[in-house]
Amino acid sequence: MGDENTLPLKYDFLHHRDAPELFGTLDFQLKDGMHFQQITKQQAYYNFIQENQESLATYYLDFFELELTSGGEGLDSYYHLDFNGSNRGSVDAEHREFMKNEFVIVGFLLYKIIYIDKNLELSSVKALQNMIRKDYEELKSDLYRLFARAKKENASQMNDEKVDETIRYALIQFSKIGWITLEEDTFDLHPSFHRLNKIYADYINDIDNIIRQISA
Description:
Number of helices: 9
């Protein structure tokens, strides 16, 4: 009879040399919606997932009914758990935080400003807030009504200060799931931010018309 330690393990990531140090934190953060990519603070976790992707995917599917998914290519690749829209699988309620509609709208605007309008050097929160007001001056009332509707507030209560606050809170949320790094007034987009375009490309490309139509 052979040594049982030589037998293939369904969840052999547990025997990885870095599992005791990394897996506990990795597990909690994946369930909280974190995206892991090749950036300095995440490199060790990214490497762990990459080296154990198959057994980790089996673990999350078997125990939590969730898919460990990858996106991007090469240096821009990333990993995350796919919650399939409103489905959180068997993850407990403590980790069931969904992105608010107003934050998704900010994400659309940010993606368009950076990648479609080619403001690739933009990295200031204050500059982003000012740019959204400037670029959407003609649609300002429509955009503010859209934000108010998303927040389930009266449109008459929406003003520049509240929109700036919504943008700031959206960036904080994006930083919590690894889409960006946020430090005071500076933000830096990560490869996983492209997941927003992967899901909502049609909306992002037509955001101006959507603002007009939905806010009406």
